[in-house]
Design goal:
Strand order of the largest sheet: 6-7-8-3-9-10
Family: Belongs to the ABC transporter superfamily.
CATH superfamily: P-loop containing nucleotide triphosphate hydrolases
GO molecular function, one term: ATP binding
Shape: globular
Largest sheet: 6 strands, mixed
Organism: Cupriavidus malaysiensis
Radius of gyration: 18 Å
Helix content: 25-40%
Protein name: ABC transporter ATP-binding protein
Pfam families: ABC_tran
Amino acid sequence: MADDPILRLRGVHTHIGPYHILHGVDLDVPRGGVTMLLGRNGAGKTTTLRTIMGLWRAGQGSVHFDGRDITRLATPAIAQAGIAYVPENMSVFSDLTVAENMRLAARSGAIDEQRLDWVFRMFPALKIFWHQRAGVLSGGQKQMLSVARAIIEPRQLLIVDEPTKGLAPSIIQNMISVFCELKQTAVSILLVEQNFHMARSVGDTVAVMDDGRVVHAGTMADLAGDEALQQRLLGLSLAAHQ
């Protein structure tokens, strides 16, 4: 993995109530490109993301972002440090318009028009519904808005949890195009995804979790080309999930 990762977790343990979910997670996210975080359901992927963001606290271990220890920082301070987080539940304000949702995501309160045009090129539906309440959007459009909110201002790291969950194939293809374009910018991306066509299409590096630990780390290309490794780590073949 990278010698100077933008994000580094070492020996991270997380408890949720009486449950010990993460059991010493070691994870490096290189600067630039997309790191896929894969694993079976219940492996600890979402808990890892929420621990990075300070939504759940690491009981042991450390989280470093851009060389800074953020393990004990509050969530707003972690976001201010340059990390944007898109949870899997399509986090939008349904009673506000698309425009109001986007303005709230801009830390200054004012949206850079050039960057907004760039977002509209990736998500043209948001321009169409700009003055409509977010609650009237379809599930796919809400997911577009969730991602758009996270990238309306430049960030160093974008963390996204299952952006294609429940989406139609045409919208999944749109998401693939979006993340391929984001890869051309300065942002680094940590992406949890169950759609393996998406994972193979956009992933550069990969970490696989099982039972609260990272059990494999390497390149996405190597994992995509090794069916025996896929079966051992994930219990399935990527070729069966086009």
